[in-house]
Amino acid sequence: MKPVRVFHVIPSLPEPLEPLREIAYNLRWSWDHDTIALFRRLDSDLWESSGHNPVYMLGNIDQMRLVAAAADDSFLAHLERVSQTLQTHTQCQTCWFRHVHPSSGKLLVAYFSAEFGLTECLSIFAGGLGVLAGDHVKSASDLGVPLVAVGLLYQQGYFRQYLNRAGWQQEEYANNDFHNLPVRPVTSGNGIPLNVEVQYPGRVVTARVWQAQVGRVPVYLLDTNLEVNSAADRQITSELYGGDNEMRLQQEILLGIGGYRALEAAGVAASVFHMNEGHSAFLSLEHARRLMERSKLSFAEARELASPSLIFTGHTPVEAGHDYFAPGLMDRYFGGYTQALGLNRRDFLALGRRNADDEGEAFCMTILAMRMAAASNGVSKLHGAVARRMWQSIWPGVPVEEVPVGHVTNGVHFRSWISQEMNELYDRYLGPQWREAVNGDSWRRVETIPAEELWRAHERRRERLVAFCRRRLREQLVRRGAPNSEIEAANEVLDTQALTIGFARRFATYKRGTLLLRDTERLARIVNDPQRPVQIIYAGKAHPRDAGGKELIQRIVSVARDPAFRRHIVFLEDQDMGVSRYLVQGCDVWLNTPLRPMEASGTSGMKAAANGALNLSTLDGWWDEAWRAALADSQRIGWAIGNGEHYDDPAEQDQVEADALYDLLEQDVVPAFYEIGAGHLPRRWISLMKGSLENLCHTYNTHRMVREYTERFYVPAAERFARLEADSAAAARSLAAWMGRVRSEWPQVRVVGIEAGPLGESKVGDLLGVRARLRLGALAPPDVAVELYLGALDTAGEINQPASFPMRHVGSPGNGEYIFEASGVPCSRSGRQGYTVRVMPHHPDLATHFPPGLITWAG
Predict the structure, then answer these.
(1) Using 50, 70 and 90 to split pLDDT, how confident is the model at 438?
(2) What is the mean pLDDT of residues 201-215?
(3) Residues paired with residue 503 on neighbouring β-strands, in sequence order
(4) What's residue 302's pLDDT?
(5) What is the pLDDT of residue 768?
(6) What is the structure's pLDDT at 605?
(7) What's the CA gap between 143 and 99, in Å, rounded?
(8) What element of type H or E holds 694?
(9) Fewer CB within 10 Å: C terminus or N terminus of the chain?
(10) CA atoms 417, 420, 426, 432: torsion sign
(11) How many C-beta neighbours within 10 Å does residue 226 have?
């Protein structure tokens, strides 16, 4: 039955408790132990049953509890302290950005992501990508980086997971009640809810704009579940990653184009746009279109102006993980939009294709983002290398190692993941500066933490993890209709003193969640050792359409039911941020077994490391660079499974790495944990914990990550954009005209001869000189950068580990030829060497060294 009128009921708070309302609606509480303790004081049981949702809690708490709290001097003092801390945080008087970049007043970054993992009660994320986005926003708030975020407010969010009696994953979807969540509708000046419109084929879709406040950072979220829309269009924001490919396209149009319009409608004038994955890449087109309108530019001019302000971060090293849309689907949704950009169909589709002339090639969102953005990066050193190989064809002729895709290794927001016990320990011995430390100075003080205190704090967390697992397992069994005997046996699973291994992540086949179960007889001997028992806690979801991932979960549940493992292996259903916190805070070892190099970064191991757990992982993602750096410094931080070898036979790969995993457990991990030294403490294990904390924590956190994005990308991007936009975008117009001339003339550019250079033998230390003759068509020497490309030759005769040296224009003999020379080039190593000469466009306003398709080599 539809209502005739709708009204909104808000919590009724006694006047002294009114500050609780703003505290509840600012998600800074999600990483502040003192604020969480405040809500627990009101009603600890309701805090847990609400899913850690203070807005719902305040609307459903017994009014007499509020009255009693309003008369409690101790509670009011606690409230005043929390309220003052929030005010201090939001005022940003002493933050890092204001201190280090006081002159960057015009910088405002708009960070777009399809999902945000901010807190467990706001279910608009699926996994690691969303949690990374949430941690990025939180660190931006802590550091005072001027940033807003844009995403979608899903009616159902991601699914809730439960297992049937056979251990097969089932999915259920619960509706988000936005009015009982820490989000508020954005309103215009007259109090009317702020809506934006986006054109879809034959219709206009309206989206409401909501806001979640995350410390200093507003997160704008779009919602199409409005009566003005058709029933089908109301479903666009129904489910995260739900529906078919067309629904995915509709969501990404709303995110990119609708999100850009939402910022404009809210009066937010962003100067830099950061696309977190390709889902939001359409914002680059909307940015160019609006610049065309505002400054009366052509698309070519607007593209040159927009590009420096666009940053793209990719997270997917697997080809199938990128979004592709059929040309016909793009025609249907972008026919009118293409005309608004002043592009023909071929040139529009070419923005998302490797080969502009391949009419059958699908439109790829990652390619669109890379073609439009001046800066692109992967999320670990290894992933950057993988991405350069994967997308090299976008920059034909550019050596793979120079493809302009760098890396910024991911991190985690420590205060969202570190237990209260560890937080207090760090405050006491490292000083409060550990929260923002991105060098090793603060973390070297880990050595001053008494071994007894570090170990007791960790043991308390393991005890809580075991208690949580038993409680959760009982609930799962009751829901599953298990026999009473099985439910009662849940009270006996796990051991508070046993070595505890955690494995919690999305269940995709490449993550190999069952690698540890490959030889169950050998594993049974390990876990059932009466003197040195081992236990394993699993958690994670498979995508609803990933049968292979579901089979992995079923396999784990089947093994866990075996009497040999019943007390030693547990699978926790419905992993969320709350479950993840228990695991990363309480486990002794964090296990990660992806098939290299398919894990772009992975951040769960960083969360565990910050809580004192030791990583045991294959050399993939972030662990590859962390392990190799520690090895170079002779530091012990955990264990590596294998050495990054690749086998052509997947079964052989699994067998070799499973054997290596068992060997590590039997020979290194288990003995180190149970080796008791002076004071009845595992001294060797504690030494490893301290080594891990000291060597990993100052690097693998989002404060370091956000500072890196700010100084390498955000600040320079804003400065370049401002320079190009000045004087009615005069510099952008000039750059576009120059680029048009360069593209038309580039087929005439060639190296016609090498006039001088080393022949025969040279000695180490000799200074080399090379002279080359070029034809440039109608271009002039200042329009090009000419480089000598020199290096050792590999067995195939290819230049390996090259270095490039600029060549300067030294003469113009006529006949349209120019002489360029490199002199004083050091001959730094012996062996068979080779060189060549290359030519690229050069302009002081170019944002990239390698514009796609514009490079010429000698020969």
Answers:
(1) low
(2) 98
(3) 538
(4) 98
(5) 83
(6) 97
(7) 10
(8) helix 683-696
(9) N
(10) positive
(11) 15
Angstrom distances, CA of residue 783 to CA of 50, 738, 786, 844: 63, 9, 10, 10
Overall residue count recorded for the chain in this entry? 859
Report the topology of domain 749-857.
Answer: Immunoglobulin-like (2.60.40)
Q: What is the pLDDT of residues 363-412, one digit of tens each?
A: 999 999 999 999 999 999 999 999 999 999 999 999 999 999 999 999 99
pLDDT computed for residue 110 by the predictor: 98
List pLDDT tens digits, range 452-480.
999 999 999 999 999 999 999 999 999 98
| Inter-residue contact 730 to 305 (CB < 8 Å) | no
Residue 324's closest CA among 418, 249, 436, 228? 249
Q: Is 511 helix (H, G, I), strand (E, B) or coil?
A: helix
Cβ neighbour number for residue 823 with a 10 Å cutoff: 15
pLDDT beyond 60 at 9: no
Q: Contact 325/247 with Cβ under 8 angstroms?
A: no
Dist. CA 419–CA 425, nearest whole Å: 10
Cα angle 695, 699, 702; round to 5: 145
- Show the tokens assigned to 544: 């609803």
Structure tokens at 639: 């264990």
Instruction: Assign residue 398 a region (left: φ > 0; alpha: ψ between -120 and 50; beta: otherwise).
Output: beta
Q: What is the arithmetic mean of pLDDT over 3-12?
A: 59
> Dihedral (C-alpha) 514, 519, 521, 525: value to the nearest 10 degrees?
-80
CATH of 96-407, one of 3.40.50.2000, 1.20.120.1630, 3.20.20.140, 3.10.180.10: 3.40.50.2000
Give the other-Cβ count within 10 Å of 764's Cβ: 10
Strands 767-775 and 856-857: unpaired
CATH number belonging to the domain at 493-696, selected among 1.10.287.950, 3.40.50.2000, 2.40.280.10, 3.40.50.20: 3.40.50.2000
Fold matches, 96-407 and 749-857: no
SS3 label, residue 365: helix
Residue 798: partners with Cβ closer than 8 Å, 6 or more residues away: none
Closest to 700 (Cα-Cα) out of 645, 621, 616: 621
- C-alpha distances (whole Å) from 93 to each of 25, 96, 137, 237, 444 are 22, 9, 19, 38, 28
* Segment among 109-123, 561-575, 601-615, 822-836 with least mean pLDDT: 822-836
pLDDT tens digits for 669-707? Answer: 999 999 998 889 999 999 999 999 999 999 999 999 999
Q: Do 681 and 455 touch, CB atoms closer than 8 A?
A: yes
Is pLDDT of 4 > 60?
A: no
Tens digits of residue pLDDT in 514-523: 999 999 999 9
Q: Residue ranges of the domains in the chain?
A: 15-91, 96-407, 493-696, 749-857
Name 111's bridge partners.
149, 274
Geometric angle at alpha carbon 121, from 118 and 126, rounded to 5°:
60
* Cβ atoms of 799 and 843 closer than 8 Å: no
3-state secondary structure (DSSP) of residue 123: coil
SS3 call for 448: helix
Residue position matching structure tokens 């007043």: 105
Tens of pLDDT, residue by residue over 306-340, are 999 999 999 999 888 899 999 999 999 999 999 99
